TrEMBL record, chain A:
Catalyzes the condensation of acetyl-CoA with acetoacetyl-CoA to form 3-hydroxy-3-methylglutaryl-CoA (HMG-CoA). Functions in the mevalonate (MVA) pathway leading to isopentenyl diphosphate (IPP), a key precursor for the biosynthesis of isoprenoid compounds that are building blocks of archaeal membrane lipids. It is an enzyme of class 2 (transferase). One of its GO terms (molecular function) is acetyl-CoA C-acetyltransferase activity. Keywords: Acyltransferase, Isoprene biosynthesis, Transferase. InterPro entries: ACP_syn_III_C, HMG_CoA_Synthase, Thiolase-like. This is Hydroxymethylglutaryl-CoA synthase. Its EC number is 2.3.3.10. It comes from Methanococcoides seepicolus. CoA binds at R202, K242. Belongs to the thiolase-like superfamily. Archaeal HMG-CoA synthase family.
Automatic annotation (TrEMBL), chain B:
Transmembrane segments: none annotated. InterPro entries: ChsH2_C, ChsH2_Znr, NA-bd_OB-fold, Thioester_dehydratase-like. Gene3D superfamilies: 6.10.30.10. This is Zn-ribbon domain-containing OB-fold protein. Residues 50-109 form the ChsH2 C-terminal OB-fold domain. Residues 12-41 form the ChsH2 rubredoxin-like zinc ribbon domain.
Amino acid sequence: MSVGIVSYGAYIPKFRIKVEDIARVWGDDADILSAGLMVYEKSVPDLDEDTATIAVEAARSAVSRHNIDAKRIGAVYTGSESHPYAVKPTSTIVAEAIEATPVLTAADFEFACKAGTAAMQACMGLVGSKMVDLGMAIGADVSQGAPGDALEYTAAAGGVSYIIGNKESEMIAVIEDTFSFTTDTPDFWRREGMPYPEHGGRFTGEPGYFKHVTGAAKGLMEKMGTKPSDYDYAVFHQPNGKFPSRVAKMLGFTKEQIKPGLVVPRLGNTYSGSCMMGIAATLDQAKPGDRIFATAFGSGAGGDAFSFRVTDKIDEVRDAAPKVEDLLKDPVYMDYAMYAKHKGKIRLA
Amino acid sequence: MSVARFWRKQINRYNIVGTHCKTCDTHYYPPRNVCPKCRRDGDIESYKFAGPGEVVTYTIIHTAAEGFEMQAPYALAIIELDEGPRFTSQVVCDPVEVSIGLRVKPVFRKLGESGDKGMIYYGTKYVPDNDRN
């Protein structure tokens, strides 16, 4: 049975901090950092925003973009590594806020930066088997980077929601296939109760990101018998600008193919929302018939690869909700002191 | 706020869900079980408001209550929904942006939390509707 994306919605907080403002505090060279990471600024949540509020805004955007009856949504899965509660689902908050309750299943997913795409795969199974009519998969994060840590330059906030269905007449993009590549690799983790994650520095690159992204991407293309030139666009998990650019080249994709979805230079790494945000930005400008290749990566570690074929329906719904570019426009910049306040790095006695 | 007290009105806070009296065509938010105009002749139904409204009046909070210190200064406004009801809400923006008559739209935000261990209260706040100002 064919499954595909029926609608999508994105949300990005309006605040940004520039890499140079973080570098000034820690005595780093902003030019070298920005050039190396290919990240120039990152999004920052408002004082009253968290993963749940971001997930709700993204979910509402997806519902309104295709005028979906939320009661048709039989599953809500939210992927994040910054769920506001350790025990109590973000997904029930989302389901209640979009008025999809009570006849549905809901759960929270966690797999570092690819929890959202894992949720997409779960929804594919549910709608493909007709267990539910529509499934909602969300990737949202208010990701954390310890003060002075390399992650602080990129850890951003944002979320994306995809509604997955099985009626071809409703799909804006058919999911042609998916393939995952997973191993137990300790490249990045956060222990229970700890406020900030730890990572293996350079170890996160080759045995983490590149092994799993190429493993999933090559696996999917071999399974489908496709090659990079069969695709109009490509999106790879974007912890910075350098990694997706490099992995695209390794796999044989061009700069032009990844350009529309490469949002990290102006957004930072939205973790569970990262690859999904790139897919959304690409859908924002894709034409009917275009094919999109995407591979998400999650530390720990795994890669989820997808092949999409955009349908005629995209032109009917694309403009009915804010595009990623709209959400990136007109940011409000803040200095490090305000950023520290917004991120809860300043605690009142 | 107790968990039960919040939960009972959660649906009204997540979305602007109030009531409407079919007899006199008056909308209420927060919801009323009985129409105060029509009394026993009233015919009350649940009503989901569209959301947009405008600022009737406002104040800027500089000395915030416990739990809201990090947000000061912030704007607290009486919002009039397009269907008529008025209620108090925070307008999330730089306080200098707020003015009487400002068109606003709803957003989903944290309303508060019971310390580090307690429940987080979510619901509707307002932001300037830049497309309509």
